[in-house]
Amino acid sequence: MARVQAALIAAGFRRHATYRQATFAGAFTNTVFGFLRCYILLSVAAAAGGAMAGYSGPQLVSYVWLGQGLLAVVNSWTMLDLAERVRTGDVVADLLRPVDPLWTYLWTDIGRAGFALLTRFVAPLVVGALAFDFYVPQSFLAYPLFILSTLLAIVVCFACRYLIGLTAFWLLDIRGVTMFWVFVSGAASGLYFPLAVLPDWLSTTLWVATPFPSLLQAPLDIAVERGGTGQALLVCLSQAVWGVLLFLACRWAQSRAVRKLVVQGG
Amino acid sequence: MIISARGLRKDFTVTRKVGRLRRERHVVSAVDGVDLTVERGELLGYIGPNGAGKSTTLKMLTGVLTPSGGEVRVCGLEPVAKRTTLARRIGVVFGQRSQLWWDLPLEDSFSLLRHIYRVPEGDHAARLKQCSDLLGLDEFRHTPVRQLSLGQRMRGELTAALLHGPEVLFLDEPTIGLDVLSKQAVRSFLTDLDRRGDTTVVLTTHDLADIEKLCRRLVVIDHGHVVHDGTLDELHARYRSRRIIVADLDTPWPEGLTLPGAVVTSVEADARRVTLTLDGAAAGEVVAALAQAVSLRDLSVQEPNIEDVVSRLYRDES
Amino acid sequence: MAEILETTRVYGRVLRAQVRSQAQYRTSMLLEILGSMVVNGLDIATVFVLFSVTGALGGFNGTEVLLMTALAAAGFTVGDLVAGSSDRLREYVRSGLFDSLLVRPLSALVQLAVITFALRRVGRAAQGLVLYVVALCVADIPWTVGRVLFAVIVPISGAVFFASLFIGGATVAFWWIESGEVANAFTYGGRDFTSYPSTMYGGWFRDLFTLGLGFGFVAYFPGLVLLGKPDPLGLPTAVAWCSPLVAVIAACVAAVFWRIGVRHYRSTGS
Asked: Which one Pfam family would you cite for this protein (chain C) (predicted)?
């Protein structure tokens, strides 16, 4: 079993390693947006007396550039090819295999994320570090917690996209769903601005009732040490809970989809 | 002279992976010095193996691709520089690339094309009627293009390419993938077009039956060079293609019998069917000799096979 | 003149055919129009979330920021309506379908814009223009004849500027098929850049985007002209009036780039 997983991860990694132009283009775009968002947030913070919603200048710099890098790692804006396979009917082949496609897609996506981590995460970070001063975590614990939280973010984001892919069984055309997801997963995950900028009731609702903060805000807050180690652990825990809930939702939706497939014969 | 090309060349740069990370750049000449002249009213077959440069030549003649070297004139115009002017005077059917509007009924595509090419209403109606009669469009004129079969769509494409009364019609693989009936419809339509003589047709094809039925003149291209330019008969003569006699006999073929000017290539069916390949002698002489030697029940003389000739031609070149 | 009119009429017919094809999927179309309007609205809301922190952005007050954001929105959404789908050129180049545009007696570029025209962008463009009118009404503008004219021309030149960017970005596909995202840095990145006053940015990045690439001429400089304010960054007022000129230059550069690209077209895929 471990060998199958390793093979799937390697396949996901290799597949994305062949898209050189796209990797370069993506890293370039993330970098340009990094400059843009970094200057905007710094300007707001400067006008507010050096800090914004409790984030200092260097914290905002780290926040923006790590966010630009992580965006490609969690990959919230690119849909899994699951939806396309549902539309064409190829998904039947996936469902007939002895391995649950949920796991197949997960391992492949983790391979993809690994490649993105080496390329699209690193590139904007290096450029950002050359142009701005980053926040350096005080506690050594912040590093392993950031890695853990990033892994959980990858898994949560994967489950969200898998769930969206599954909606294709009922909707056929998921462009509308995708459009909303792309915007909401950007704004509500803290890509454009830290959620703490929002009114309290709104940011609290987002944290408690939606998985979006788990995608970016969670690992980013840990990297800039917002709250102590205790709060970081709490954040990771909430990500893990969202991960489990979403996986259960995926399993449930998938079994409904299979039943629909069996009843209607595709 | 409606088409002329001198030393026409198209180079492509290709990158090839060498090892893990390195890539090498090569320049490949898809078309390498093609000379070609076509007179008004001709029907020219432009053939060659895959990747020989057929489509590339056609795309340079129609202004789609910019030549890397040489000179081209179509209708007296330089295709790329005068692309839109030339477009009004030529018609193009590129096998797999539709000219039609996918989601709209065939008829809507036709009427849009009328406006695009600014064809007077009367001319349009007359040409449409003519094509429609010959190609049998009436049954699917109101069907959206996406629902047409390949054969129906190709008939639509042909019509679309002719509605503005082009001087030259370029056809890239017009029969590829079609069923037998559609192929016949397309061929007889082209024969008719050729007979009327006011449209010059340049046709690339893989289908050798197209060539035998349609083309008086053949240009064969291989590796970007023209390797033959002439009639089908000249092609046969050049490659010494030979006619074949197949004879059914009342009595078994006597073993070891030879006839002057012919070679026995096979003896089948309990030695009652023999195949002879003519080798220098005229068919009549061999048949006469045959009738004296054995008792004939039936006999047929088969023309040389174009497939055979062309495949031999490709082999010679490579 | 009659020639131009006739040509326009032909493009109009092709455009209408395109709309007719899309209108066959009515529900999905309506949903997309509404959806993109909501997303566009939220995009603008993002600016005001940051505005809410101190009640100002880059030294400008609410109505001033709104004017600049609205100028950016109007320019971008209209430019997007005209040429936003031209990045689908990639598909046409990859499949070789671009051939069929080249064998028609029409401009390949206009044909591309027309056949990739997406009706769903209409809602957003209307929204952008309405927002601009609102912003003009609430902003404190010392109206003169010059400013009235300028207020009319500026969203158009912004649209031309963004359309040129979309086309320039799409043209890259003639060389590199997979690198469409580079263009996003300047189209969508440009929209985000122009939604905020240029004073918020710093260093070479500000100079490059505001002046070097001309983004300052979409919303920031025109905003200053309309408000009658001098440039806090110290550029002479005459420069700020140059938006239409910059748009023309952008269009020319995009057109030249397109021409070179078409010559470079390789027509693979058959």
From this structure: ABC2_membrane_6
Residue B103 placed within a domain: yes
Instruction: Say if residue B196 is in the same domain as residue B268.
Output: no
- Judging contacts by C-beta atoms under 8 Å, the chain C residues touching residue B117 are 105
- Work out how many domains chain B is built from and give that number: 2
Distances (CA, A) of A133 to B311, C105, C193: 70, 57, 22
Q: Give the pair of three-digit tokens for residue A3.
A: 């060998």
Chain C residue closest in CA terms to B170: C103
Indicate if B74 and B100 belong to the same structural domain: yes
List CB contacts (< 8 A) between B88 and chain C.
105
This complex has an ipTM of 0.91
- Say whether both B147 and B293 belong to one domain: no
* pLDDT over 50 at C270, yes or no: no
B127 and B256 both lie in a single domain? no
CB of A225 closer than 8 Å to CB of A138: yes
Q: Are residues B26 and B169 in the same domain?
A: yes
Q: How many domains does chain A have?
A: 1
Distance CA C235, CA C242 (A): 12
Q: What CATH code is carried by the domain that includes residue B140?
A: 3.40.50.300
Question: ∠C128-C134-C139 over CA atoms, to 5°?
Answer: 120
The answer to whether C201 contacts A40, with C-beta atoms less than 8 Å apart, is yes
**In this complex, is the C-beta atom of C208 within 8 Å of any C-beta atom belonging to chain A?**
no
- Does one domain contain both B29 and B170? yes
Q: Range of A71's domain? A: 2-264
Phi first, then psi: give them for residue A147, nearest 5 degrees: -65, -45
Of A242, A222, A84, the residue nearest A149 (C-alpha): A222
Q: Does the beta-carbon distance from B94 to C270 stay under 8 Å?
A: yes
**8 Å CB contact of B83 and C102:** yes
Say if the Cβ atoms of C107 and B80 lie within 8 Å: no
Tell me: do B234 and B254 sit in the same domain: no
Q: What is residue B264's three-state secondary structure?
A: strand
Domain ranges of chain C: 2-263
Cα separation, A147 vs A150, in Å, equals: 5
Each residue's pLDDT tens digit, A148-160 = 999 999 999 999 9
Could you list the beta-strand ranges (E) of chain A: 51-52, 55-56
Taking the Cβ of residue C206 and every Cβ of chain A, the question of whether any pair is shorter than 8 Å is answered with yes
Do A243 and A232 contact (CB within 8 A), yes or no?
no
Contact in structure between B249 and B297 (CB atoms under 8 Å): yes
Same domain membership, residue B263 and residue B202: no
User: Which residues span the domain enclosing B37?
Assistant: 3-238
Whole-prediction pTM value? 0.86
- The per-residue pLDDT for range A81-90, each reduced to its tens digit, is 888 888 777 8
Tens-digit pLDDT profile for residues B16-48? 777 666 778 888 888 999 999 999 999 999 988
